[in-house]
Amino acid sequence: MVLTWAEMDKSGELSFEQLLLVKSLETMAMSARVVNDVQSAEKYEKLATSLKKQIFDVFWSKEKNAFLHTRKDGKVADAVTRYSNMFSILFNYVNPETKQLIKDNVILNDKIQGITTPYMKFYELAALCEVGETSKAVEFVRDYWGGMIKLGATSIWEAYDPTQSGLAHYEMYGRPFGKSLCHAWGANPVYLFGKYLLGVQPTSPGYQTYAITPSLAGLKWIEGDVPTPNGNISVYMNQKEIKIKTASGVGILKLNSKKTPVVQKGVKVNKTGATSYEIELSNSESNYVVRYF
Fold first, then answer.
1. Residues 166-174, mean pLDDT to the nearest whole number
2. Residue 265 neighbours by CB under 8 Å, 6+ apart
Protein backbone atom coordinates (compact mmCIF):
# COMPACT_ATOMS: atom_id res chain seq x y z
CA MET A 1 0.00 0.00 0.00
CA VAL A 2 1.32 3.47 -0.88
CA LEU A 3 0.80 5.60 2.20
CA THR A 4 1.98 8.85 0.62
CA TRP A 5 4.61 10.07 -1.82
CA ALA A 6 6.52 11.78 1.01
CA GLU A 7 9.97 10.41 1.83
CA MET A 8 9.66 8.26 4.97
CA ASP A 9 10.13 4.78 6.33
CA LYS A 10 7.32 2.62 4.90
CA SER A 11 8.59 -0.72 6.19
CA GLY A 12 7.34 -2.71 9.15
CA GLU A 13 3.91 -2.44 10.71
CA LEU A 14 2.63 1.08 10.06
CA SER A 15 0.24 2.43 12.69
CA PHE A 16 -1.66 4.26 9.94
CA GLU A 17 -2.41 1.03 8.05
CA GLN A 18 -3.48 -0.70 11.26
CA LEU A 19 -6.00 2.07 11.95
CA LEU A 20 -7.37 1.70 8.42
CA LEU A 21 -7.78 -2.02 9.05
CA VAL A 22 -9.78 -1.31 12.21
CA LYS A 23 -12.07 1.01 10.26
CA SER A 24 -12.46 -1.61 7.53
CA LEU A 25 -13.46 -4.24 10.09
CA GLU A 26 -15.99 -1.86 11.62
CA THR A 27 -17.42 -1.18 8.16
CA MET A 28 -17.69 -4.92 7.51
CA ALA A 29 -19.56 -5.30 10.81
CA MET A 30 -21.95 -2.49 9.92
CA SER A 31 -22.57 -3.98 6.47
CA ALA A 32 -23.21 -7.41 8.01
CA ARG A 33 -25.82 -5.93 10.35
CA VAL A 34 -27.57 -4.24 7.41
CA VAL A 35 -28.14 -7.68 5.86
CA ASN A 36 -28.96 -9.25 9.27
CA ASP A 37 -25.80 -11.37 9.37
CA VAL A 38 -25.41 -11.10 13.14
CA GLN A 39 -22.73 -13.78 13.42
CA SER A 40 -20.40 -12.04 10.95
CA ALA A 41 -21.11 -8.65 12.50
CA GLU A 42 -20.10 -9.88 15.95
CA LYS A 43 -16.95 -11.49 14.53
CA TYR A 44 -15.80 -8.30 12.81
CA GLU A 45 -16.67 -6.15 15.83
CA LYS A 46 -14.61 -8.39 18.09
CA LEU A 47 -11.64 -8.25 15.71
CA ALA A 48 -11.89 -4.46 15.42
CA THR A 49 -12.05 -3.95 19.19
CA SER A 50 -9.08 -6.24 19.79
CA LEU A 51 -6.94 -4.63 17.09
CA LYS A 52 -7.72 -1.08 18.22
CA LYS A 53 -6.61 -1.92 21.77
CA GLN A 54 -3.36 -3.37 20.43
CA ILE A 55 -2.72 -0.25 18.36
CA PHE A 56 -3.05 1.97 21.42
CA ASP A 57 -0.92 -0.36 23.53
CA VAL A 58 1.86 -0.55 20.94
CA PHE A 59 1.92 2.82 19.18
CA TRP A 60 0.65 5.48 21.60
CA SER A 61 3.56 7.35 23.20
CA LYS A 62 2.98 9.16 26.48
CA GLU A 63 6.30 10.93 25.99
CA LYS A 64 5.44 12.24 22.51
CA ASN A 65 1.70 12.58 23.19
CA ALA A 66 1.15 11.07 19.76
CA PHE A 67 0.97 7.80 17.85
CA LEU A 68 4.37 6.55 16.70
CA HIS A 69 4.83 5.67 13.05
CA THR A 70 6.05 2.08 12.69
CA ARG A 71 7.21 -1.11 14.38
CA LYS A 72 9.84 -3.39 12.86
CA ASP A 73 11.00 -6.71 14.28
CA GLY A 74 9.06 -6.05 17.47
CA LYS A 75 10.65 -2.62 18.08
CA VAL A 76 8.67 0.59 17.77
CA ALA A 77 10.64 3.35 16.05
CA ASP A 78 10.82 6.70 17.87
CA ALA A 79 9.31 8.62 14.97
CA VAL A 80 6.03 10.55 14.67
CA THR A 81 4.23 11.27 11.41
CA ARG A 82 0.91 12.97 10.80
CA TYR A 83 -1.03 10.10 9.28
CA SER A 84 -2.15 7.81 12.11
CA ASN A 85 -2.64 10.81 14.38
CA MET A 86 -5.01 12.69 12.10
CA PHE A 87 -6.95 9.52 11.22
CA SER A 88 -7.43 8.70 14.90
CA ILE A 89 -9.28 12.02 15.14
CA LEU A 90 -11.31 11.50 11.96
CA PHE A 91 -12.37 8.00 13.05
CA ASN A 92 -13.24 9.36 16.52
CA TYR A 93 -10.94 6.84 18.21
CA VAL A 94 -9.58 9.31 20.76
CA ASN A 95 -11.20 11.38 23.51
CA PRO A 96 -11.30 15.21 23.50
CA GLU A 97 -8.19 15.52 25.68
CA THR A 98 -6.17 13.26 23.37
CA LYS A 99 -7.45 15.15 20.32
CA GLN A 100 -6.07 18.33 21.83
CA LEU A 101 -2.68 16.67 22.44
CA ILE A 102 -2.54 15.45 18.83
CA LYS A 103 -3.55 18.87 17.50
CA ASP A 104 -0.82 20.64 19.49
CA ASN A 105 1.95 18.07 19.17
CA VAL A 106 1.41 16.84 15.63
CA ILE A 107 -1.00 18.71 13.37
CA LEU A 108 0.12 22.23 14.37
CA ASN A 109 3.74 21.18 14.90
CA ASP A 110 5.91 22.35 12.02
CA LYS A 111 8.71 20.03 13.18
CA ILE A 112 6.63 17.02 12.08
CA GLN A 113 7.22 16.21 8.41
CA GLY A 114 4.67 17.99 6.24
CA ILE A 115 2.23 16.44 3.79
CA THR A 116 3.12 16.94 0.13
CA THR A 117 -0.04 15.92 -1.77
CA PRO A 118 -3.35 17.79 -1.91
CA TYR A 119 -5.15 14.44 -1.59
CA MET A 120 -3.60 13.56 1.78
CA LYS A 121 -3.73 17.19 2.93
CA PHE A 122 -7.50 16.83 2.94
CA TYR A 123 -7.45 14.44 5.89
CA GLU A 124 -5.24 16.76 7.90
CA LEU A 125 -7.57 19.71 7.27
CA ALA A 126 -10.64 17.60 8.08
CA ALA A 127 -9.00 16.62 11.38
CA LEU A 128 -8.41 20.31 12.13
CA CYS A 129 -12.07 21.04 11.43
CA GLU A 130 -13.12 18.18 13.70
CA VAL A 131 -11.31 19.83 16.62
CA GLY A 132 -12.87 23.23 15.91
CA GLU A 133 -9.97 24.81 14.01
CA THR A 134 -11.92 25.76 10.87
CA SER A 135 -10.18 29.15 10.64
CA LYS A 136 -6.80 27.43 10.66
CA ALA A 137 -7.99 25.03 7.96
CA VAL A 138 -9.02 27.98 5.77
CA GLU A 139 -5.56 29.51 6.28
CA PHE A 140 -3.98 26.23 5.16
CA VAL A 141 -6.14 26.19 2.02
CA ARG A 142 -5.07 29.75 1.21
CA ASP A 143 -1.40 28.91 1.71
CA TYR A 144 -1.31 25.44 0.12
CA TRP A 145 -3.80 25.56 -2.75
CA GLY A 146 -3.15 29.27 -3.07
CA GLY A 147 0.55 28.48 -3.41
CA MET A 148 -0.17 26.41 -6.51
CA ILE A 149 -2.28 29.23 -7.96
CA LYS A 150 0.53 31.73 -7.40
CA LEU A 151 2.81 29.44 -9.42
CA GLY A 152 0.36 29.53 -12.32
CA ALA A 153 -1.75 26.43 -11.64
CA THR A 154 -5.12 26.41 -13.39
CA SER A 155 -6.01 22.98 -12.02
CA ILE A 156 -4.84 21.01 -8.98
CA TRP A 157 -1.46 19.29 -9.04
CA GLU A 158 -0.83 15.71 -7.97
CA ALA A 159 1.69 16.94 -5.40
CA TYR A 160 2.82 20.31 -4.15
CA ASP A 161 5.77 21.01 -1.86
CA PRO A 162 6.05 24.72 -0.93
CA THR A 163 9.76 24.27 -0.16
CA GLN A 164 10.56 23.42 -3.79
CA SER A 165 11.33 25.97 -6.47
CA GLY A 166 11.60 26.25 -10.25
CA LEU A 167 11.26 23.13 -12.37
CA ALA A 168 11.45 20.92 -9.28
CA HIS A 169 7.71 21.56 -8.87
CA TYR A 170 7.04 19.46 -11.97
CA GLU A 171 9.31 16.51 -11.16
CA MET A 172 7.83 13.19 -10.03
CA TYR A 173 8.46 9.47 -10.41
CA GLY A 174 12.07 10.20 -11.31
CA ARG A 175 11.06 12.18 -14.40
CA PRO A 176 11.62 15.92 -14.94
CA PHE A 177 7.98 16.50 -15.93
CA GLY A 178 6.36 13.38 -14.49
CA LYS A 179 3.80 15.10 -12.27
CA SER A 180 0.10 15.29 -13.12
CA LEU A 181 -0.99 18.92 -13.15
CA CYS A 182 -4.69 18.05 -13.27
CA HIS A 183 -5.37 15.73 -10.35
CA ALA A 184 -9.03 15.53 -9.34
CA TRP A 185 -8.26 13.96 -5.95
CA GLY A 186 -6.90 17.31 -4.82
CA ALA A 187 -10.23 19.14 -5.15
CA ASN A 188 -11.23 18.23 -1.60
CA PRO A 189 -11.62 21.79 -0.21
CA VAL A 190 -14.98 21.75 -2.02
CA TYR A 191 -16.08 18.95 0.32
CA LEU A 192 -14.47 20.53 3.38
CA PHE A 193 -16.23 23.84 2.83
CA GLY A 194 -19.58 22.13 2.29
CA LYS A 195 -19.32 20.07 5.46
CA TYR A 196 -17.54 22.40 7.85
CA LEU A 197 -18.19 25.97 6.60
CA LEU A 198 -21.61 25.70 5.02
CA GLY A 199 -22.05 23.11 7.75
CA VAL A 200 -24.50 20.77 6.01
CA GLN A 201 -24.35 17.22 7.40
CA PRO A 202 -26.84 14.33 7.29
CA THR A 203 -28.08 12.98 10.62
CA SER A 204 -29.80 9.96 9.04
CA PRO A 205 -29.36 8.04 5.76
CA GLY A 206 -30.13 9.91 2.55
CA TYR A 207 -30.48 13.29 4.29
CA GLN A 208 -33.91 12.31 5.56
CA THR A 209 -32.84 14.42 8.50
CA TYR A 210 -29.92 16.84 8.49
CA ALA A 211 -28.27 19.63 10.43
CA ILE A 212 -26.83 22.93 9.19
CA THR A 213 -24.15 24.49 11.40
CA PRO A 214 -22.54 27.24 9.29
CA SER A 215 -19.24 28.88 10.24
CA LEU A 216 -17.52 31.85 8.63
CA ALA A 217 -14.13 30.61 9.88
CA GLY A 218 -12.67 34.10 9.59
CA LEU A 219 -14.31 34.88 6.24
CA LYS A 220 -16.65 37.81 5.63
CA TRP A 221 -19.19 35.63 3.81
CA ILE A 222 -19.69 32.14 2.45
CA GLU A 223 -22.12 30.77 -0.14
CA GLY A 224 -22.64 27.40 -1.77
CA ASP A 225 -24.82 24.36 -2.50
CA VAL A 226 -24.57 20.91 -0.97
CA PRO A 227 -26.10 18.15 -3.15
CA THR A 228 -28.40 15.61 -1.50
CA PRO A 229 -30.59 12.81 -2.92
CA ASN A 230 -33.53 15.20 -2.52
CA GLY A 231 -31.98 18.22 -4.23
CA ASN A 232 -29.47 20.91 -3.33
CA ILE A 233 -29.39 22.62 0.05
CA SER A 234 -28.22 26.21 -0.46
CA VAL A 235 -26.54 28.24 2.28
CA TYR A 236 -25.40 31.86 2.37
CA MET A 237 -23.92 33.46 5.48
CA ASN A 238 -22.38 36.81 6.26
CA GLN A 239 -21.67 38.51 9.58
CA LYS A 240 -25.32 39.48 10.11
CA GLU A 241 -27.61 36.98 8.39
CA ILE A 242 -28.02 33.45 7.08
CA LYS A 243 -30.06 32.53 4.01
CA ILE A 244 -31.06 28.93 3.41
CA LYS A 245 -32.97 27.14 0.68
CA THR A 246 -33.89 23.65 1.84
CA ALA A 247 -34.67 20.42 0.03
CA SER A 248 -36.91 17.57 1.16
CA GLY A 249 -35.98 16.19 4.54
CA VAL A 250 -36.31 17.52 8.08
CA GLY A 251 -33.55 19.99 8.94
CA ILE A 252 -32.23 21.90 11.93
CA LEU A 253 -30.21 25.13 11.69
CA LYS A 254 -27.78 25.47 14.60
CA LEU A 255 -26.19 28.83 15.30
CA ASN A 256 -24.80 31.11 17.99
CA SER A 257 -26.29 34.54 18.62
CA LYS A 258 -26.02 37.07 21.46
CA LYS A 259 -29.80 37.38 21.46
CA THR A 260 -32.71 35.54 19.88
CA PRO A 261 -32.34 35.33 16.08
CA VAL A 262 -34.99 37.01 13.96
CA VAL A 263 -36.80 34.77 11.45
CA GLN A 264 -39.97 34.94 9.38
CA LYS A 265 -43.30 34.45 11.07
CA GLY A 266 -44.25 30.89 11.98
CA VAL A 267 -40.68 29.54 12.16
CA LYS A 268 -39.84 27.96 15.51
CA VAL A 269 -36.67 29.05 17.34
CA ASN A 270 -35.43 26.99 20.29
CA LYS A 271 -32.81 28.24 22.76
CA THR A 272 -30.38 25.43 23.60
CA GLY A 273 -27.74 27.32 25.58
CA ALA A 274 -26.65 30.76 26.75
CA THR A 275 -25.96 31.91 23.17
CA SER A 276 -26.92 28.83 21.14
CA TYR A 277 -30.13 28.34 19.18
CA GLU A 278 -31.78 25.80 16.90
CA ILE A 279 -34.25 26.68 14.16
CA GLU A 280 -36.55 24.03 12.74
CA LEU A 281 -36.57 23.72 8.93
CA SER A 282 -39.62 22.32 7.16
CA ASN A 283 -39.77 18.99 5.35
CA SER A 284 -40.05 20.60 1.90
CA GLU A 285 -38.32 23.09 -0.34
CA SER A 286 -38.46 26.41 1.50
CA ASN A 287 -36.52 29.65 1.85
CA TYR A 288 -35.34 31.07 5.17
CA VAL A 289 -33.71 34.35 6.13
CA VAL A 290 -32.26 34.43 9.64
CA ARG A 291 -30.80 37.54 11.23
CA TYR A 292 -28.45 36.83 14.11
CA PHE A 293 -26.48 38.95 16.56
1. 94
2. none
